[in-house]
Amino acid sequence: MTNRPPLNSLEATAGDDRHPRRWDPVVKTTHWSIVAAVLVNALVTEEGSGAHIWVGYALSAVLALRLLWGFIGPPEARFSAFLPSLRHAFRHVRNIRAGRKEIHVSHNPLGALMVYVVWSTLGVIIASGIAMAGPPPIASLGQPGTPPAAVERSDASSDHGDEDEEHKDRQGEDGLWSEVHEIAVNILYVLILLHIAGVMFETRRSGREILLAMLPSRS
């Protein structure tokens, strides 16, 4: 009886290093859509504006699609192909130090950990953003300023003086979520830099075209 490697390793055979890694269209689309959303909200939209919030909701939809694809997508895109494991990550580091190369059809163990950390950070960013913004801001699309939920709270407090204290409490909650949101965004920026550095290092170490495999033009 032949012992098969666990699905979460999905290591290729020795001859497979001649063939570039390939990702399916859903993985590529969600990857670059997340990149675009982060860049747009970091460099283009104004924080708190309707456009900024809408990009955040689009980001949440894209992330949800990628997570769903982790259950129903092709083998290399499923969670079972790159389960997070500190033991495997440490083994991968030892292999790097020893100069040993392992070819993975999906993410290598360090890349797998990075993926899950990035997704978790995006989840915190999205959740804290929704906590501050409330429902999708249809009426305020493109209008910078206070999110609709905060406007409604302000109107209510002006009509009912006895709700001033409640209004202050909600402002305090918004301040807490704002701080969480900002910290998570800054962590994401650091993770992005580490991710880029990791891709460059692994490309040079393994000789595989890791970045090119994620380009939309690659089939």
Automatic annotation (TrEMBL):
Record Pfam families: Ni_hydr_CYTB (PF01292)
GO CC terms in record: plasma membrane
Transmembrane segments: 51-69, 110-133, 183-201
Source organism superkingdom: Bacteria
Any single biological process term in GO: respiratory electron transport chain
Chief localization: membrane
Record keyword Cell membrane present: yes
Cytochrome b561 bacterial/Ni-hydrogenase domain ranges (all copies): 22-216
Ranges where the record places region Disordered: 141-174
Record keywords: Cell membrane, Membrane, Transmembrane, Transmembrane helix
Membrane topology: Multi-pass membrane protein
Annotated GO MF terms: electron transfer activity; heme binding
Subcellular location: Cell membrane
Alphabetical list of PANTHER family matching this protein: BLL0597 PROTEIN (PTHR30485:SF2), NI/FE-HYDROGENASE 1 B-TYPE CYTOCHROME SUBUNIT (PTHR30485)
Protein name: Cytochrome b
Lineage summary: Bacteria, Pseudomonadati, Pseudomonadota, Alphaproteobacteria, Sphingomonadales
